[in-house]
Structure formats: C-alpha cells, structure tokens
Design a protein that fits this description.
With 160 residues, the chain is of the alpha+beta class. The protein contains three helices and eight strands. The termini are far apart. The protein has a six-stranded antiparallel β-sheet, with helices on one face. Strands 3-5 form a two-stranded antiparallel ribbon.
C-alpha cells in the first residue's frame, strides 16, 4: 500500500472525513503510513465541546478524536485508491482508558491510530492513543464498521 504524499496530507481535513463543521473535531493529518495515521488537535475556545468552566474539552470527547482519526485514515486510503469517501460507524471500544480529565486550552494533542484487524465485510479494530507531547492521555481499541454501501446499509437497518 502507498504512503500519502505531503501535498495530499496538507489538504483540509474535511477532504478526508465525511463530517462537516462544526462536527469536525480534529485539525489536520500529521503523518500517514500503511495501516496507521497521526492527527493533530489544538484546543481553543472554539473547539467543539469546549467547557468554559473546565477551560478545556472533557476527556470523553477523546473517543471521537479517535473515531475521526480512523475516518481520516479511511479517507486517505480511499483517495489513494481513487475511491469516494465513505461513511463509517463507531461500534464501540475495549480497554478504554482516560489518563487525564480534560484536553486543556491552548494545548496540542496527537491521536495515533493503527489498524489491528480488518475483515472484507468492513469490520475493523484499531489501536488508538492520544498524546500530549510524550504523555499518554487516552487509549483504546476501537471497533468500527464501514459497509460497502452505507446508504443501503442504513436503509436496510430501518426497514427491518
């Protein structure tokens, strides 16, 4: 599998994930390797879920940083293969550990995602970690599902 070029990774994050503002929570892609990706998130008062009282974003939002980083990896892979960006679904997590209570104002965080396993059906498991500098802030194994045709999948789910 090919590694993304710096020019590709310099594109806006909205080019890689099916989310739209204000629900884009990650800022940009830092690096890509086959089966792994690192994204960056800078916490500001404009960050989604920013809490004025806490002066940061609550740690539970970290699972969405992980999920959007997985989506960005899928988006990079789709673009490299000349395919459209597809919707995926966060199914759940295992071994979720939050080592801090918030992502602090003015700080930068890096989310690392690595594919551990993927089935042809679209079911996959990722090892995810969020770092502030060299400090591990959060970690989990995240289970996701990306069907070949998400619209048909959702329509079938509602008609059953």
């Amino acid at each position: 599998m090919t590694t993304a070029t710096p020019d590709l990774l310099a594109r806006p994050i909205s080019d890689f994930i099916p989310h739209r503002a204000p629900m884009i929570l990650i800022d940009h892609i830092v690096s890509h390797q086959p089966d792994s990706l690192i994204t960056q998130t800078q916490i500001s008062p404009q960050s989604a879920y920013f809490d004025e009282i806490l002066q940061g974003v609550p740690n539970y939002v970290g699972i969405e940083y992980m999920a959007q980083s997985i989506a960005a990896l899928a988006g990079v892979e789709a673009i490299l293969q000349g395919q459209p960006i597809k919707v995926g679904f966060l199914l759940g997590s295992r071994k979720l550990q939050m080592h801090q209570h918030l992502f602090a104002l003015g700080q930068t965080y890096h989310t690392h995602v690595t594919r551990l396993y993927q089935e042809d059906s679209g079911l996959a498991v990722f090892d995810c970690q969020i770092f502030h500098q060299d400090t591990l802030m959060a970690q989990a194994n995240v289970n996701v599902f990306q069907p070949a045709d998400s619209l048909a999948y959702v329509n079938d789910s509602y008609s059953a």
